[in-house]
Write the structure tokens for this entry.
Amino acid sequence: MIVISDIKLNGAEARLAAEFAGVFSRETVAELLRDSFDRLEATAKVRTYLELFAERFARERLAAVAQSQPGESGGVPEALLPHLSGQAVR
């Protein structure tokens, strides 16, 4: 039986796979998304937006790993700090 959360996660998987194409395989994205969902589900008291939060959590995790990889998109992590003028300072 297909559960609604599976359908929503399939959509999230497709979006993340497209976003990180050339960086991570679709299988890696799917595994990390499922792991993110499982981690959040384990402590969730409310399930209303669990799939959305899992997608965001997975996106952050994928971006962090991609940033830590040497190469074109990787390198030293960069922190952006807000400036009083409203512009980011590097």
